Amino acid sequence: MAKKILTEHINVPGIETFDVYRRQGGYTAVEKALKTMTPDEIVEETKKSGVRGRGGAGFPMGMKWGFLAKPEGVPRYLVCNADESEPGTFKDHYLMKSIPHLLIEGMIIGSFALGAKKSFIYVRGELMYVIHILEKAIAEAKAAGFLGQNILGTGYDLELIVQSGGGAYICGEETALLESLEGKRGNPRNKPPFPAVKGLYQSPTVVNNVESIANMPWIINNGADAYAGIGIGRSTGTKLISASGHIKKPGVYEIELGVSVEEFLNSDEYCGGIRDGHHLKALVAGGSSVPILPAHLIMKTANGEDRLMSYESLSDGGFATGTMLGSGGFIVFDETACIVRNTWNFARFYHHESCGQCSPCREGTGWMEKVLHRIEHGHGSMHDVDLLVDISKKIEGNTICPLGDAAAWPVASAIRHFRDEFMWHITNPHEASQPGAVYQGEMALV
Amino acid sequence: MEETKPQLIKITFDGIEVEVEPGTTIMQAARKIAEADESQGHLVPPAMCYYKPLPTSGGKCRACLVKVAQGSAKDPRPMPKLVPSCITQVQEGMVVENTTNQGVLDTRKSIVEFLLINHPLDCPICDQAGECHLQDFAFEHGSVKTRYEEDRRTFDKIDIGPFVQLHMTRCILCYRCVYTADQITDKRVHGVMNRGDASEISTYIEKAIDNDFSGNVIDVCPVGALTDKTYRFKNRVWFSKPEDAHCDCSKCSGKVTLWYRGDEVIRVTARKNTWGEVNEFICNTCRFERKKTSDWVLEGPTKVKRSSVISANKYRADLIKKPDFALKLAATQFKPIDDTREFVTDGETIRQQSIENNDKANHRSLLAKNN
Ligand SMILES: Cc1cc2nc3c(=O)[nH]c(=O)nc-3n(C[C@H](O)[C@H](O)[C@H](O)COP(=O)(O)O)c2cc1C
Ligand code: SF4
Ligand code: SF4
Ligand code: FES
What pTM did the predictor assign? Predict the structure, then answer.
């Protein structure tokens, strides 16, 4: 069995309660951190562990903490990003509803390390029941003296506040999240200034994903070296993968970074393989925002090496032949899936979720959706495919926040790898627009 | 104590060196170049959302994206992406490429395209036509054809308050009016609702902004989305004659531009600077109620410097440099006509002629009215 850091105790009955969590060794990391370590030592430990942000960008967490500005007399904040709305990603939800104290324990350690006296967990609006679970857990932790005034007699005060979002994907973007937390419209901010300098209420702020923060108790208990010993190369530790699509066992799995894609997809410990009688056609490895890969580039990289579940291996080959680990939303397509329809579906999502502040994303996402809709419904023309590529290029890199890129990549990559399928839709409009029709032409399946 | 002058920062913009104060943006540095030498006006990046008098505006439309080829003297690496020049601060030794970089120009062309796909292009019936920044932007940086074949988004016209009408269909979501409303009132009643291309400018539950300075949203709007109801369909701007005037107003500076048709003041606006920006907002009384010459002390004709058809002969053939499609089109599709009239270049003659033309036009419209 692979090493479990986050989900080790997740199936213990009653683990969502303080008592059971405590009996499993919970909150010992808070005791250790607050009583025997200085904030700087914790930041150092985090840096040494090599843990990277699990929200999508994979930025080293310790380094982010080290960047936090510390001007005199200005409060600092730690904000947990629990807005999880990326299609194909549902790990934070699972973690918070099953073992809420793990996140709270991580938040206490993180807040102490950063010198935050007030910290926030921003939860996507649809997850009201999770908010209730978190609030209950916070009340328990407070009653046990792990939150509130003078925690464990160390003189450290911390208030932890759960805030519900309004159900907008864009509020997962860290600066939009901060705007929303301030009670404003969730429009991403232009950067610089970065949140580390001017974040929540214009004060230095760190925003981290749920899973990133939930790693902290283990790192404190077991040491950075033990954490860095798990995984492969610069992809240290474990990662929660949300597996969905045409596989036998969809669900959330904790993997050691570095297992092969083949093992993850086919072994019974994880996805259990493609459903019977079908073949692998394509994979979105890291949530809807990352480039889609065709079958022949999934198990092996372009130069024939085994493709591993790690930041480096998945992005091997750049966007030409690789993709990204992203937030770990592993969406599997077999030969019954229509790539054009799926691309349209993703485009529709980004069109719907664009905040509308900057012109390339506001106008470009809608344009791409409409063109894809036309192609899917049998009204495409030959130049539409190149038009889509051109629109995606004009959005990419020219927007305020990465949502523009996230909208452009799925479209550009689908055309890069499945151009024939788009062409078939255009040249056989009648056939292609029948319900359930899928391209049967030449392509590699695994 | 001796006063220390802030160290000036030197940057290179399109090959021209300029020294500016720390904290200056690339856009302001470029404007400084153009203010020192008017012939360099074309180097200044276009701004569709940035509006200097409105703090925190800018960064949204992406019209002003430029290439930073060298970040600073200390860190000479180029910046990986194009940056919005309106909000990016200069660094010592920075090298910026605007009109000298093809990638920047291509991107700008696509920004025009993006802004136009959902725009109704109803210039012939739009009051803003002639002083519309989107027209100028499209004319200077756009392409002649559209690749957009889909439906355009539309909204119903709504009145916001007794004086201002919102044509949301024309709006480019620059947020200038939102910032203006934020600054002139502490009750936040004007903002953006919904997301993406369904976003719309709105007053809180259709509440009219009954603020004394609400009319200024008309002046800051770069397009014809917010228009003056007292001026609706009265005239084309190029047929009216702007005169600077002032009055002794208890609420605002009283410094305005009066727009004449014949002897009649058909519109009052705040004064705009070279960059089309209003530095001194005016009150609604001056704007909507003082429409007689006797209400004002006239100062003389308004000097309109750039970015408007009113700045005489903007579209004159020999001044058109970009885009060349106009010339190409002219070369292929139009027959030469025998026109022996001379080009007039001196300002006074042009003014006289425009007054005459204006009067003729007014005369015609008067005739039409009387018949
Ligand atoms: C459009 C958009 C949506 C995002 N949504 C989320 C999200 O739901 N959860 C999340 O943790 N990060 C999300 N991110 C990434 C955050 O901006 C940010 O990078 C992350 O929260 C940082 O945490 P980390 O360093 O721990 O990964 C999103 C980014 C973008 C551009
Ligand atoms: S890229 Fe899209 S979502 Fe991000 S700020 Fe611009 S319009 Fe908003
Ligand atoms: S109404 Fe005018 S000023 Fe307001 S956002 Fe739209 S274009 Fe900008
Ligand atoms: S003027 Fe700079 S982004 Fe709009």
Answer: 0.90
